[in-house]
Specification:
alpha+beta, Immunoglobulin-like, 5-stranded antiparallel beta sheet, 4-stranded antiparallel beta sheet, 17 helices, about 40% helix, membrane, Ig-like_fold, transmembrane, transport
Length: about 525
C-alpha cells in the first residue's frame, strides 16, 4: 500500500512537472506594426523602390554582343554554361570570380556592420524589402494597426473575408512577379514571359516560378519577423562585429528615465536641457540624472514633475516590425530600421521636448552625452582597418585577374587507358585530349607547340600535317574546340617513367597560355 502511494505520488509529481514544462511554451504573438512617417521611414521607402526597381527591371536591359549571342545585359545561361554581366562574359572555368564576389560581399557586410550596425537587415535584406511591401498592401486593404487588431478579433464575416481574400490575392500576384523575375535572370526575359503565359515554357521554368512564388508568399506574408528571429543566422553572430563605436539604434536612458505621463500643474524638465550629473542611487535612473539644484533654482522643486522625457506611450513598440521594445537595450531581434526613432520623434515634437530620445548613435557617445561631453564618431578602429584592408586586397586581386584575363585558354587531359603505346619503330606515344577555349566572338587560329620535351613531336587526329614541333588549330567563335593530339618520342629519349612538360597555345596576337602535363613511358 505504501509503495502504491509512493508510486502515485511520483507519477503525480512527474505529471505536474511535465505540465509546468509545457506551460513554458508561448505561441507566436502576431506583430501588427503601426504606420509611421519620418526620415527613416522615407529612407526605407527609397531603398525599397530602388531595390525592387533593380530586381524587376534589370532582366529587361539589353546589351549588343554581336550575332548569335544573347543580348540580355544580365544573364546566367545555364545550357550554354555562361554568365553575362553587360560586356563581361564569365566561363565555367572562371567560377573563381563568383567566389571572389561572395568573399568581397561577406567582408563588405562585416565592414558595414562594424561601422553602421544592421543597416543591411533594416534596409537591403530581401526579407525586409518584401515584408515591407507586403505590410504596405496589408495596411492599404485592412487599415492601420488598430484596425487590423480589431479585424483579427472579429468573427469571420463577409467584410472580413473580402478584405483577407483581397490581401492574399495581391500578395500572390507580388509573389508570382517575384518568382517570374528571378527566372528571367536565367532565361531570356521576353521569350520566357511569352512562353510562360502561352504554355510553351519548360517544366523547370514552371517548377521554379512556383517554388519562388510559394517561398516569397510564405516568408514575406506569413513568417515575416520569424525569419529574422529564428531562421536567419546573421543575428546570431553579427554582434561579433559590434563594439562601443558601432552605430546602433539606442535609447537615451539617461534622459528618458524615470518614465511617466506628464502631470498637470507640474513643469517637465528634460535632462537634455540641463547639465547632467551622476545620481546618488547607483545609476538606477540611467547614466545621468537632472541637476536638481539648478532645476530647483530655475523652476522650483515643488513644480517639477521629476520624470524623464519618455512618457511610456509605447509607440516605439507599436511601430517595430519585430515587436520589441528598444528601451530594453540592443537585442537580437532589432533589425536597425529606425522606425522607432521616427515614432519617438513624432511624440517628442508634439510635447515640445528635444528629439532623438531614441536615436541612431554609438554606445560610447551615449556615455559621453550622459556626462555632458561632446560626442564624436570614431571610424578608424582596428576592426574597420582590418576589414577595409581585406576588402582592398581581395578587390585588388579580382581587378588584376580581370584586367589580365586571357581571351583564350587550354585544357589538356591525358589518356588513362592506355597511358602510353610502344610503336613498331621503338617510339613511345602518349595520347591527349586538348580543349581550346575561344572566348571571343570571332573564329581564331592558334599555334600549339611543346615545351621542355626534347625530341617530342605533335600530331593531330584528322589533320593532314605531318608530325612536327608545332601545329596550327582553329576554334569557332565563343566555343570550345576539342582535338585528339598524340605526342611521340624516340624510345632512346624516354629515360624516365614520367616527365613534366608543357603545351603552349599562342593566338594570332602573340598571347600565350601554358598547360602543364606529363609524358609517360615504360619502367626503366
Amino acid at each position: 500500500m505504501a509503495e502504491q502511494t509512493i508510486q502515485e505520488g511520483t507519477e503525480g509529481a512527474l505529471s505536474r512537472r511535465r505540465q509546468k514544462e509545457q506551460n513554458l511554451y508561448a505561441g507566436r504573438v502576431k506583430v501588427h506594426p503601426m504606420g509611421i512617417q519620418g526620415f527613416y521611414r522615407k529612407l526605407k521607402w527609397a531603398a525599397l523602390i530602388v531595390l525592387l526597381g533593380i530586381y524587376y527591371l534589370a532582366p529587361w536591359l539589353r546589351w549588343d554582343r554581336g550575332p548569335n549571342a544573347p543580348d540580355q545585359a544580365l544573364l546566367i545561361d545555364m545550357p550554354a554554361r555562361r554568365a553575362y554581366f553587360f560586356g563581361l562574359e564569365i566561363w565555367p572555368q572562371e567560377v573563381y570570380y563568383l567566389a571572389g564576389l561572395l568573399i568581397m560581399g561577406a567582408i563588405g557586410l562585416f565592414l558595414i556592420t562594424s561601422l553602421l550596425g544592421r543597416v543591411w537587415c533594416g534596409y537591403a535584406c530581401p526579407q525586409t524589402v518584401w515584408t515591407d511591401l507586403y505590410m504596405l498592401v496589408e495596411r492599404w486593404i485592412e487599415g492601420d494597426r488598430n484596425a487590423r487588431l480589431k479585424l483579427d478579433r472579429q468573427p469571420m464575416s463577409g467584410s472580413k473575408l473580402a478584405k483577407r481574400s483581397a490581401k492574399h490575392a495581391v500578395w500572390l500576384v507580388i509573389a508570382l512577379a517575384t518568382g517570374g523575375a528571378w527566372i528571367m535572370y536565367f532565361v531570356d526575359a521576353p521569350t520566357v514571359l511569352v512562353n510562360f503565359f502561352t504554355g510553351q515554357a519548360s517544366f523547370s521554368v514552371y517548377f521554379f516560378v512556383g517554388l519562388f512564388t510559394a517561398t516569397t508568399y510564405l516568408l514575406a506574408g506569413w513568417a515575416r519577423e520569424q525569419v529574422c528571429v529564428y531562421m536567419c543566422p546573421w543575428p546570431r553572430f553579427q554582434a561579433a562585429m559590434f563594439d562601443e563605436d558601432t552605430m546602433t539604434i539606442t535609447y537615451e536612458r539617461w534622459r528618458g528615465e524615470p518614465r511617466g505621463k506628464p502631470k498637470k500643474g507640474k513643469t517637465h524638465v528634460s535632462p537634455a536641457t540641463l547639465p547632467p550629473t551622476r545620481p546618488d542611487d547607483g545609476g538606477t535612473q540611467g547614466l545621468a540624472a537632472i541637476d536638481w539644484a539648478q532645476a530647483d533654482a530655475l523652476y522650483g522643486r515643488d513644480k517639477i514633475d521629476g520624470k524623464g522625457d519618455c512618457i511610456a506611450c509605447d509607440k516605439c513598440v507599436a511601430v517595430c516590425p519585430t515587436g520589441i521594445d528598444i528601451r530594453d537595450g540592443v537585442q537580437l531581434e532589432c533589425i536597425g530600421c529606425g522606425l522607432c526613432i521616427d515614432a519617438c520623434n513624432s511624440v517628442m515634437e508634439k510635447l515640445g521636448r528635444p528629439k532623438n530620445l531614441i536615436t541612431y548613435d554609438t554606445l560610447a557617445n551615449q556615455e559621453r552625452r550622459a556626462r555632458g561631453d561632446k560626442p564624436r564618431i570614431n571610424l578608424i578602429r582596428p576592426r574597420t582597418v582590418l576589414y577595409s584592408g581585406l576588402l582592398a586586397v581581395v578587390g585588388g586581386i579580382m581587378l588584376f585577374t580581370l584586367m589580365t584575363r586571357s581571351s583564350h585558354d587550354i585544357n589538356v587531359l591525358h589518356d588513362r587507358n592506355p597511358l602510353f603505346v610502344p610503336l613498331s619503330d621503338g617510339a613511345i606515344r602518349n595520347g591527349y585530349t586538348v580543349k581550346i577555349l575561344n572566348k571571343e566572338r570571332a573564329t581564331r587560329s592558334y599555334t600549339l607547340e611543346l615545351r621542355n620535351l626534347p625530341q617530342g613531336a605533335l600530331s593531330v587526329v584528322g589533320a593532314k600535317d605531318p608530325k612536327a614541333q608545332q601545329v596550327t588549330l582553329t576554334a569557332d567563335p565563343d566555343s570550345v574546340a576539342t582535338y585528339k593530339v598524340y605526342v611521340e618520342r624516340p624510345g632512346a629519349a624516354v629515360t624516365q617513367t614520367t616527365r613534366d612538360f608543357q603545351f603552349l597555345l599562342t593566338d594570332d596576337d602573340g598571347n600565350t597560355v601554358v598547360q602543364e602535363t606529363l609524358f609517360r613511358g615504360p619502367e626503366t
